[in-house]
Amino acid sequence: MNRVAVMTVGKTHSGKTTFAQALERRLANAIVIDQDNHAEILRNYYPALVPKQGANTIKYALTQTIVDYAVHQTDCHIILCNANRNRKGRLKLLEFYREKGFTTIVVNFDIADEVLKARIDRAERDTSILRTVSSFYEVLNGQQAESLGNPGVIPAPGEADHLFTVATEQQIEAATLKICELAARGEDS
Question: What is the value of pTM for the model shown?
Answer without folding.
Answer: 0.90
